[in-house]
Amino acid sequence: MNRKHTIIGMLTCLLLLSSLLSCAPSPSRVGYGALKKQQPTVTIAVLEKQIHILINHERRNRGLSRLAWDDALNAIARKHSRDMAKRKYFAHLSPEGRDFMFRYKQEGYSCGIRVNNTVHLGAENIGTPEKHSDAPLAASGHRRVHRPG
């Protein structure tokens, strides 16, 4: 009797489960919006770190030393990015012709990179993580700053 009750119980559960599943909407009855994937969220801080990682990856591929993360420099770059977005321009120079050295001075930041007998006072680059990591090193002016010798 126990085995018979177990089989009947299992059949009852299967019947109940199949009836519940038949009530669920099929994919064809669900609207497109319900099946659409959610857009990924990207934070500015994560994007900035991705750019930094990709630049260092590209530098390593080219036999160059790794660049350290600099919170103060990152804040200056983020402020410039916000200014470009707010005022709808995309350039190293502001509409008033101010460059990164002006932004450094404004924030009390100093930078000095010695390459042989030359001290470079810094640089900046603009782009998406994938394009950003390769473009600066492809430009001859950036190679001079970043390539020793």
- Topology pattern, helix = H, strand = E: HHHHHEEHH
Major sheet: arrangement of strands: 1-2
Total number of β-strand segments? Answer: 2
Radius of gyration: 29 Å
Query: Major beta sheet, specifics?
Result: 2 strands, antiparallel
Structural class based on helices, strands and sheet pairing: mainly alpha
**Helical coverage, percent range:** 55-70%
Instruction: State the helix count.
Output: 7
Distance between the amino and carboxyl termini: 90 Å
Q: Quick summary of this structure?
A:
The chain is mainly alpha-helical and 149 residues long. The protein has helices spanning 2-23, 32-35, 44-61, 71-87, 100-107, 129-138, 140-146; strands at residues 113-115, 118-120. It contains seven helices and two strands.
